[in-house]
Write the structure tokens for this entry.
Amino acid sequence: MHASASPSPTTVDVRELLAGSGPFGPDDVRAIADSLGTNPATHRELRLTVQELQAATDRSPAASVRLGVGLYLLGRSSEAVAALKAGDGSALALFALGLAQSALGAADEAKASFESASSSGYPAAACTAAIANTLRAAGRLDEATAVLDAASGDQAEAAALLAARAAVGVESSAPVEEAFAQLEKAVAADPGEPLALFCLGVLHDRLGNDDEAIDCYQRSLQRYPATVGALINLGLLYEDRDEFSKAQECYRRILDGLPLDAPGRDEAVARARLFMKDSAASGDRLLDEQEQRHRDRLEQIMTLPVSDFELSVRSRNCLAKMGIQTLGDLARTSEAEVLASKNFGETSLVEIKEMLAGKGLSLGQFAEPTAAAEPQPAFTEPVEEETEIHGLPVTELNLSVRARKCTTKLGITTIGELVRRTGEDLMECKNFGVTSLNEVRERLAERGLKLRGE
């Protein structure tokens, strides 16, 4: 709770700090908070320790303070207020109480608690910055500015106070150069100061410096708890770069981690859900575009005539006798079928494989599965009214991403090519399971079609 050092990725013994009998102060709280921001395992240890403290029937006032701090760090601010009010009235207890009240949007109560903490010996700069941040969050910018202006010279140079002043300036449209100067001083004093890093991210974001903005937002999130603004803004920047999985992770952290009693939670969750939905849709569209480009390229390659390539006379003659004219014909012909041709030996086979590999294809890649122990079900040729449907691209079925990827791997480009396959054919494709198979069956059934043999 006292900004003095950059966040450390090292794990701390949360149980020893909160449930132990040793001293417990601002540096210990900061160590837990830093570990929460960099080590996911710390969250579980903190939850278990808080449960242990809550189960104690003879909890002392000092233990109530430790419990209250733990509850606040878990985002359970309402419970934290109750525990801290039952504490020992120490400077730490009062400061933590102010933080919990501020998190609940109780600005006046939080201000009074921070003032009492300062009077009791808690670092004055941290208390002044906390009061200013609480008033700013409540939209009381003039009051926040007055509090900051009243700070003494020594306090005014503290990282937390510099960040608080710059944050007020950012929200009140102060000159950008002035805000940058204060924020850079704050980060120089404390490289992990979260508010300063967040504000720097906002300024870089406004100026179109996306790389710098992303770096600042990421660094600000190393300090716990993560801010909704940083997660939303970072997610949107990721979306601009088509990094939709990273964007969705930002929104998911809001949906999964925002405390139930956080002010404005409903609005924040609603925004995160909306952005999550839009990001998922955009990601699907991007995959669709990528798949379509892949399909287009594949179709172009498959139509290339084998006569365009330098092959030996023997290979050319054998391919001509087999009626193979394009690379697509070769990709649909199995190795066994090629070798069965008269005068087609291993040398010609290697030559053909190398030619196909140069275009990203392989012999028999799109060959129809050969009959094994059981004969393949017969395929019923489409009647006249079905011909048009069979010629439609398979994308018309609006399959899921996984199912579409498998059809691409199998070289299926039209609905007609799809219904010529059996369910077993499709299941041979990696990652194509029963769920995807049932999806294909449902989409075909909507058009009155079935897979081969069904």
In short: The longest helix spans residues 265-302.
